[in-house]
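Need a sequence for this fold. Nothing fancy.
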């Protein structure tokens, strides 16, 4: 349920984030374009004002009165010179009045007469060195004079009537000086700021910038420090982070003054409503996610978890575990189901235990019956051997047989345990084969059983009937054979013991018939030794355990005893037991 909620939320958040990012990018680009256009328009206004000043200066320098002011004045009297000065000054004042919003100071210098006329309140004096120092032909910030600390400078431009030589004086030139103060720039910056979101200022590297009158001093200082480390192009626009906030910085160069008009716009403030709506959406998604998760948790605890408990209980019953019980902590409809399930499981467990006890008692009786059938079979063979050896006056064989027979009955009469370790069974087989070796000098045996297999618990007298058949029906029916080999291994979760002989063996059809008889009930014509052994291992280890008969690698007959164990590890290191007579 929680995964489904997450899957539903992820596409919504991805789509909204993408659309929000697109909106941010579009608005950001439009803001950049709009800001650079407004800044370029402001720069063009400033350049337009300056061009008007320059056009007036060039036109004014050709005025007859101005030319007359720079003339030789040989035939003019004092009154005429005064009238000329008055006319020139009146025209400069009139021009400055026309451009009231852009006050300009004009000064006319006559190099011929060493005189100066200005529209300023303070009278200007002619200074040859002053003119030579400032005749650059370009607008300059300051005129080279020392300015008191804290006082701003003005922009200056000097024009001479010498054609093509604006940076030199010939000695009789007419020079017109035009200058305006930083207040003109500030007025335009204030007007620009009043109609927008920015905080503009006029900047030139190495000079004190001209700020608008309501500018943030700290912010402007940080930005100027940033600009001092940059190489500004004619037009520049970047997003700069200052005071832990993002600002859009735009700069446009004034080609006449060689200064940059810089504007700083707070992006976070402009894009704040979009960011607020985005954050509000994310908060809503978080709240919806929390509500969805809480609902799914409640649904899981009150519905899904009880259903899972009931399913696990039914699965346990299906596997045969009828002791399972379900604890009901809540008091709801599921508690009734749990109660009925526990009652059902308890009743089934009682019935199964009764049936199982009956089956166990029947199985124990069958095991005891099968073992009782095997013990007399072996006893008859041993007594027959003793009689034969006694008739043959073979006292050593009689003593050995009697000793081994005594050890055998001591082993088989311990009825407190119905199983024994394979190691105990192998010892019994060694005693038996030693006896047979006394009877038949051709017999040789080899025992190769891994140590891990020696610890396996098997039914008592598991190997004896099979080894006895190998001796009687294998070695005993051939004059050239005499080898019996007992080996074992653990692999793929099964224990396997192989009893091989080199006797005449059986045909393939006979082997198939014998294997088939092992799966049928005991018949009168069938010997009970092998059939009983097969039944005992089935009772002991289950239906996947059995005897199997096939052709031996020695050329004779092989009997395989196979039973299932819990561990499937293979072990390849085997102890080796060999007997020769």
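Here you go.
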């Amino acid at each position: 349920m929680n995964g489904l909620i997450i899957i539903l939320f992820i596409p919504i958040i991805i789509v909204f984030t993408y659309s929000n990012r697109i909106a941010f990018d579009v608005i950001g680009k439009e803001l950049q374009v709009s800001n650079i256009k407004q800044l370029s328009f402001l720069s063009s206004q400033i350049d337009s004002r300056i061009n008007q000043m320059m056009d007036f200066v060039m036109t004014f320098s050709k005025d007859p009165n101005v030319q007359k002011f720079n003339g030789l004045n040989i035939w003019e009297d004092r009154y005429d010179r005064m009238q000329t000065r008055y006319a020139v000054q009146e025209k400069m004042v009139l021009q400055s009045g026309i451009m009231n919003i852009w006050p300009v100071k004009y000064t006319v210098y006559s190099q011929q007469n060493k005189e100066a006329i200005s529209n300023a309140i303070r009278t200007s004096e002619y200074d040859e060195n002053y003119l030579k120092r400032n005749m650059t032909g370009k607008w300059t910030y300051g005129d080279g004079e020392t300015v008191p600390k804290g006082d701003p400078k003005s922009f200056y431009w000097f024009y001479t009537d010498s054609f093509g030589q604006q940076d030199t004086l010939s000695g009789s030139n007419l020079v017109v000086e035009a200058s305006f103060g930083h207040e003109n720039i500030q007025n335009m910056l204030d007007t620009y700021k009043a109609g927008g979101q920015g905080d503009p200022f006029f900047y030139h590297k190495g000079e004190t910038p001209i700020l608008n009158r309501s500018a943030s001093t700290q912010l402007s200082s940080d930005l100027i420090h940033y600009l001092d480390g940059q190489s500004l192009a004619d037009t520049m626009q970047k997003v700069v982070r200052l005071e832990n906030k993002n600002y859009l910085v735009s700069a446009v160069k004034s080609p006449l003054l060689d200064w940059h008009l810089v504007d700083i716009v707070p992006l976070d403030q402009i894009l704040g409503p979009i960011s607020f709506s985005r954050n509000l959406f994310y908060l809503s998604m978080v709240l919806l996610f929390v509500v969805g998760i809480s609902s799914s948790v409640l649904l899981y605890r009150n519905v899904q978890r009880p259903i899972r408990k009931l399913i696990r209980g039914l699965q346990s019953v299906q596997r045969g575990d009828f002791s399972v019980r379900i604890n009901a902590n809540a008091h709801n409809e599921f508690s009734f189901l749990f109660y009925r399930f526990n009652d059902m499981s308890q009743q089934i467990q009682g019935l199964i235990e009764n049936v199982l006890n009956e089956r166990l008692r029947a199985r124990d009786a069958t095991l005891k019956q099968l073992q009782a059938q095997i013990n007399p079979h072996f006893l008859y063979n041993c007594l027959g051997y003793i009689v034969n050896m006694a008739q043959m006056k073979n006292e050593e064989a009689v003593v050995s047989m009697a000793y081994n027979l005594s050890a055998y009955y001591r082993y088989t009469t311990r009825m407190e345990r119905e199983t024994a370790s394979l190691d105990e069974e192998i010892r019994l087989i060694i005693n038996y084969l030693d006896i047979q070796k006394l009877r038949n000098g051709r017999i040789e045996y080899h025992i190769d059983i891994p140590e891990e297999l020696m610890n396996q618990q098997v039914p008592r007298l598991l190997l004896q009937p099979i080894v006895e058949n190998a001796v009687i029906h294998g070695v005993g029916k051939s004059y050239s054979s005499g080898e019996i080999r007992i080996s074992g291994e653990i692999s793929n979760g099964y224990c396997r013991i192989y009893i091989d002989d080199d006797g005449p063996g059986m045909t393939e059809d006979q082997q198939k018939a014998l294997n088939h008889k092992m799966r049928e009930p005991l018949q009168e014509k069938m010997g009970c030794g092998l059939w009983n052994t097969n039944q005992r291992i089935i009772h002991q280890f289950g239906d996947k355990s059995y005897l199997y008969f096939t052709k031996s690698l020695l050329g004779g007959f092989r009997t395989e005893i196979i039973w299932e164990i819990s561990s499937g590890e293979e072990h390849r290191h085997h102890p080796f037991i060999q007997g020769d007579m």
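For context: The first strand starts at residue 105 and ends at 110.
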